[in-house]
Each structure stands twice: as structure tokens, then as C-alpha cells.
Write a structure and sequence with these properties.
Elements (H helix, E strand, L loop, with lengths): L6 E5 L3 H12 L3 E5 L11 E3 L5 E3 L5 E2 L3 H9 L6 E3 L3 E5 L5 E5 L10 H5 L6 H10 L1 H6 L12 H8 L3 H16 L8 H13 L6 E4 L3 H14 L4 E3 L4 E6 L4 E6 L4 E2 L3 E4 L3 H7 L2 H6 L1 H4 L9 E8 L10 E2 L7 E4 H4 L5 E2 L2 E2 L4 E7 L10 H15 L9 E9 L24 E3 L12 H21 L1
Parallel strand pairs: 1-2, 1-14, 2-10, 7-16, 14-22
Antiparallel strand pairs: 3-4, 5-9, 6-9, 7-8, 11-12, 12-13, 15-20, 15-21, 16-17, 17-20, 18-19
Helix pairs in contact: 1-9, 1-15, 2-15, 6-8
The structure holds flavin-adenine dinucleotide.
């Protein structure tokens, strides 16, 4: 590394690590990113299989709220690749029914009126009971959700006495789609924060999909941008342990036996991996580090199925409270670059991508068994259009440790990006920022970590 520039080692080449690399390279730091896997992108990674089809770690929806992500994409000139869909949420039901929450182009909160008065499923009475439960949110706004972090969302809803149907049909899939855990486990703070944002900012709940693979429109452009300005990126290099001398990080022990050193160290690792690389003497040094062990990660499964006919023409995200597919999309509609199978055009057919959750009790099942359950959920939601549909191909990705689990009380354990150790910084969806563990969260955490390093370097 150059002796004139301050050096930074970034561990983890997910969205947080790649964003931080760009931010720091832009400010004149000499950056090296070390990634354990063969590919970059972490939980948003995508790769081509032996048939030449793109496989994704998971369905990724782009919420309107993630302004930091779109700023970043503008800087690498790929913001055009987010295709914004109609501003509505559709829920598909066992037996073939569905309901849709639409929005109107009106100032907040009037934009939500159609969702309340004509969603075609919940009665006005049910929606009014729900609206009443949100009075504290309307009055105290973003000050209210943090006061409810001691409750699960199910406990909060029981206190507010809004109907079970609303919980089962609307909030269960929403909770599973957001963090892959059900309302009986997720902190009330999360759902209330999201509801407050959607209520206050009309475009926050609008969803988009990338035109194609995240590798092409997110990670490679970031890699190209930073490498052309001198940053180095290494794959298949795993960090084993940070070396702490009681005051500072003195280097990093890699799994291949090498030790590397730098002026600053930035861990952009998932929480379970971060806990493994922090040495015992650092955990004993300050409870900032030991308390990270309280944070856990959630398992989730991603499934893609190609069917030989069009089961739904929906060009948007879809939710389902029934079966094992809380959130999914027909990528043959939403994602133009994915309208192919083994190199052949695939228009007019279905390429579903599903997030399968809760996955805790499914992780041990075989691929065939999981695909069977997903296919059953599809056929139950689309009894007519799925008649005679055959599966042409299916893929499955199991992620035992995905996003951190936002259980009640966990907010307290989320770390800031700046640590008590002068030359060590953290980034990642689990760290403290507005958007929880999401693409927006990864980018915001990286912005904050990079800012911390820049400020620290001015002091030295
Ligand atoms: C199935 C699924 C669906 C999702 N859907 C959405 C969505 O619709 N919208 C949304 O905004 N977010 C979604 N998310 C969440 C989003 O993907 C994450 O919040 C975000 O990608 C986190 O980025 P990160 O950089 O913090 O962590 P990661 O992406 O986990 O990156 C960390 C990197 O560190 C590497 N690493 C680990 N250990 C080591 C080591 N010892 N040495 C070196 N490298 C190491 C990993 O390989 C990885 O590449 C989804 C996640 C999943 C799993």
C-alpha cells in the first residue's frame, strides 16, 4: 500500500463493504477489501449457474425510502436500473382470492386513504380499529416506536385490540417479508417504524426492482468505480481474527496465515462473522464489543421456480399470508433481463422468486421437499392459472444466518459505526442506522463508518 495515503482494510465485500470502499477511495484513502467468498455482494449477491441463468441470494425490493442507496447508484450511474412499479401492495390468498392496498397521489397521510376505504378485503370497521391503534404514532411520530421495543408486534397488537384477521392476513406476511420472523417474535418497534415512515413519506413504500442482476447494476459498477481509482478487491480471503494490543488494532490474521496491517480497519461483516473475528481481549476490553454477542441472525430460504405458463401477470411484489411464501414476485414480469431460461426467451411464462419464511423449521428439509411446499403454496393461491403448469427448473439457496433478528430489546445491542478503539470501525445492516438490516441500511452504515474514519484521520 502507498505510504503517502492513509490505508484502510475493509473486511467483507457485501453492499456495506463496497459502499465504504467507494466513499473512502473518493476521499483519497488507499483501500483494500477482503471478501471470504468467490463473489462480492454478500446477501444481495447474484451469480450465473451452469445453465447461464442468474441466481440470486434473495428477492430484493427497492423501497422508495432508501434515498442513500439511490444517491450511491447515481454516483456510479446505475440509478436508471431501478424500475419503479405501481404504488400498491397485493396480497394473494389460498383459494385464489387477493386484495390490494392502493395509494393515491395526495399529500401524506391522505395518500393512504384508498388502502383504508377500498382494499376489497378488510371491512371499514377493521381498518378503523387499526387506524385508532395508530393514534399514538400519529401524535408522537418517530418518538413513539422506540418506546415499544420491549414488546413483540403481536403483544403490541393484543394491547391495542385490533382484529386477528388484520394480524394474520396483513401483518404476518409483512413481518416475514421484512425480517423473516413472525409478529410473535419481531419487535413492535420495527413494524411501527416502518408504518410511521410509510405514513409520513408518501413515496417511501413505493417498490422497485432492478432491471437485472445486482451483480451487473450494483456490485460490478461499484467495483469498477473504486478499482479504477486505486482500490484493491480480493476474493477468497477470509479474516480469522483482529489483533488487538490493549489499545489499538495492530493487524489482522487471515485464514491463509498472512497478517496484514493498515492505519484503519473497517469490519463490514454479518453479525455472526463479526463476533467470530473479534478477539477475546477486545471483548474483555469494552462491553461495546461483548454485548454484540446478544445479536443473532435469522435463517431464510430463497427459491426460484420457472413454470411453463404464465401463472400471474403481476409486475410487482406480491405477499401471501397462506403457505410458505410470504413475499415473492414473477421476475419474468418485474425484471426484464431475467426473461430467459437456459439462454432461450422466456416471455409469457413464469419465473417466480420466493422468500421462504419462517425458515427455522424448514432448513433441514431436502431441496425437493421445500420446492414441493412452495409449489403447493403457488397452486393454492392460483388454483385456476396454475392448472397444467409444469416446473421447468427450480433452484434453492439456504441462508442460515441472514439479517440480524430484531427481537424485542435488541435495539440496545446494535453498535454505532465508531467503536471505543480509535482505529476500528463497523458497518453492516445490524449496526445503528435508520433502515435496519436492508440495502438502505447497509449503505447508510457504510456512509457513517466512512465518515467516522475520515473524521478520525483529521484528528491524527
Ligand atoms: C433472502 C433475502 C432477501 C432480502 N430482501 C431484501 C429486500 O427486499 N430489500 C432490502 O433492502 N434488503 C433485503 N435483504 C437484506 C439485505 O440483503 C442486507 O441487509 C444487506 O445486503 C446487508 O449488507 P451487508 O454488507 O451489511 O452484509 P452482507 O451482505 O452479509 O456482507 C458481508 C460480507 O462479508 C463476508 N464475510 C463474512 N465473513 C467474512 C470473513 N471472515 N472474512 C471476509 N469476509 C467475510 C460475506 O461473505 C459477505 O460478502 C434481504 C436479505 C436476504 C438474505
Amino acid at each position: 500500500m502507498s505510504s503517502e495515503k492513509k490505508t484502510v482494510l475493509i473486511f467483507g465485500g457485501g453492499l456495506a463493504g463496497l459502499t465504504a470502499a467507494k466513499r473512502l477511495t473518493d476521499k483519497g484513502f488507499q483501500v483494500k477489501v477482503l471478501e471470504k467468498r468467490e463473489i462480492f455482494g454478500g446477501k444481495v449477491s447474484s451469480w450465473k449457474d451452469d445453465d447461464g441463468d442468474w441466481i440470486e441470494s434473495g428477492t430484493h425490493c427497492f423501497f422508495g425510502a432508501y434515498s442513500v442507496l439511490y444517491d450511491l447508484m447515481k454516483e456510479v450511474k446505475t440509478d436508471h436500473a431501478v424500475l419503479w412499479k405501481d404504488h400498491q401492495l397485493t396480497y394473494t390468498l389460498a383459494g385464489g382470492g387477493h386484495f390490494t392496498f392502493n395509494t393515491w397521489d395526495l399529500p401524506s397521510p391522505l395518500h393512504l386513504l384508498p388502502a383504508i376505504v377500498k382494499n376489497g378485503y378488510f371491512t371499514f370497521g377493521e381498518m378503523a380499529a387499526f387506524a385508532k391503534s395508530l393514534i399514538p404514532l400519529a401524535l408522537k411520530r418517530d418518538n413513539y416506536p422506540p418506546t415499544q421495543d420491549h414488546l413483540t408486534f403481536a403483544e403490541w397488537a393484543a394491547e391495542k385490540k385490533f382484529g386477528q384477521r388484520l394480524m394474520d392476513k396483513m401483518f404476518r406476511p409483512m413481518s416475514l417479508a421484512l425480517k423473516f420472523i413472525p409478529p410473535e417474535e419481531i419487535s413492535a418497534k420495527i413494524i411501527l417504524d416502518v408504518t410511521e415512515t410509510f405514513y409520513r413519506i408518501p413515496d417511501a413504500s413505493r417498490m422497485g426492482f432492478l432491471k437485472g442482476a445486482p451483480q451487473e447494476y450494483l456490485h460490478q459498477p461499484l467495483l469498477d468505480y473504486s478499482s479504477s481509482r486505486g482500490a484493491e478487491f480480493k476474493t477468497k480471503v477470509a479474516v480469522d481474527e483482529l489483533l488487538f494490543d490493549g489499545q489499538e488494532i495492530k493487524g489482522v490474521q487471515l485464514r491463509n496465515g498472512e497478517i496484514l496491517t493498515a492505519d484503519y480497519y473497517l469490519c463490514a461483516l454479518p453479525i455472526h462473522n463479526l463476533n467470530k473475528v473479534l478477539p477475546d481481549n477486545l471483548k474483555q476490553h469494552d462491553q461495546f464489543f461483548s454485548k454484540l454477542e446478544k445479536l443473532e441472525a435469522v435463517p431464510v430460504i430463497s427459491v426460484q421456480i420457472w413454470y411453463d405458463k404464465e401463472i400471474t401477470p403481476a409486475d410487482n411484489v406480491l405477499f401471501s399470508p397462506d403457505g410458505v411464501i410470504p413475499v415473492y414476485a414473477n421476475l419474468a414480469r418485474t425484471t426484464p433481463d431475467y426473461r430467459s431460461l437456459r439462454g432461450e426467451s422466456f416471455s409469457g411464462k413464469t419465473r417466480f422468486e420466493f422468500c421462504v419464511a419462517p425458515a427455522k423449521n424448514l432448513m433441514a428439509l431436502s431441496k425437493d421437499e421445500i420446492i414441493k411446499r412452495v409449489d403447493q403454496s403457488v397452486r393454492s393461491c392460483y388454483p385456476e392459472t396454475s392448472k397444467g403448469a409444469n416446473i421447468l427448473k427450480s433452484t434453492l439457496v439456504k441462508i442460515p444466518h441472514s439479517v440480524y433478528a430484531p427481537l424485542p430489546g435488541m435495539e440496545h445491542y446494535r453498535p454505532t459505526q465508531k467503536t471505543p478503539v480509535r482505529n476500528l470501525f463497523l458497518a453492516g445492516g445490524f449496526s445503528q442506522q435508520l433502515y435496519y438490516d436492508s440495502m438502505g441500511g447497509a449503505v447508510m452504515s457504510a456512509n457513517l463508518a466512512a465518515e467516522g474514519i475520515i473524521n478520525q484521520s483529521r484528528k491524527n
